[in-house]
Amino acid sequence: MCSAEESVEKDNLRSTGLVGLDLALGGGIPRGTVIIVAGTPTDGLDLFGAQFWRGEEEEESEPNGSYLMIDDEPSEKMYDARAVTNQNLPSLVLGERVVLDSLSTIILRDGIDAALDLIRELKKKTQAEDSNVILLLYKGIHTREEEIRLTRAADGYIELLQRITGSEVERMLGIFKMHGLDLPNQLVPYNILADGLELSTTKRVV
Questions:
Q1: CA angle, corner 185, sides to 179 and 191, nearest 5?
Q2: Cα 101 from chain centroid?
Q3: What confidence tens digit (pLDDT) does each residue in 126-140 have?
Q4: DSSP assignment of 43-72, as one string?
Q5: pTM to 2 decimals?
Q6: Is 180 exposed, middle or buried (0-12, 13-18, 19+ CB in 10 A)?
Q7: Are 51 and 151 in contact (CB under 8 A)?
Q8: What domains, with CATH codes, occur in the chain?
Q9: d(CA 190, CA 31)
Q10: CA 47/CA 195 separation, integer angstroms
Q11: KaiC-like domain location, by residue (predicted)?
Q12: How far lies 87's CA from each of 31, 113, 119, 160, in Å?
């Protein structure tokens, strides 16, 4: 794990499972980091989490990681973490790719300080094991102060943005924090498909 001042070598990046996002990041997210991905239920936030969890594996393959479902009934191969305490959640972080769905539920249930404590514990674990954790965060239900504290605590922050222009829905992905990497200056357009998010790969985002 590198500090914020160090740059990350390309071979120390892990693919996000989204080709266009990997292109924008120069290869993927730094290994050993905790990343917050924020959006609304209609932005495809859960699809993002599932794509990262699966990685580049075929759909029938076993994901190399764990998907900890706190919000809802878990799908196949996901772990039902609805009754797991925050103190025990880090012990369920197994494999290279871990998704926590969602950090918002922890904040609403146990408070912002409990969520920040969990992020600190997850950072220790990911750094020690060279893994990555994606924390899904739902926008519009937390205070601005809480969002700022969460963004500062995490290693990276990605946001799914959506706006309606006339009769069209415009969806964009923004990378606003990623320790060790140069940030792109542009948003990345994306579409929501039945099996996940498709990001524009027509040009490198600079």
A1: 95
A2: 10
A3: 999 999 999 999 999
A4: TTHHHHHHHHHHTTS-TTSPPSEEEEE-SS
A5: 0.91
A6: buried
A7: no
A8: 10-199 (3.40.50.300)
A9: 24
A10: 8
A11: 96-199
A12: 23, 13, 11, 29
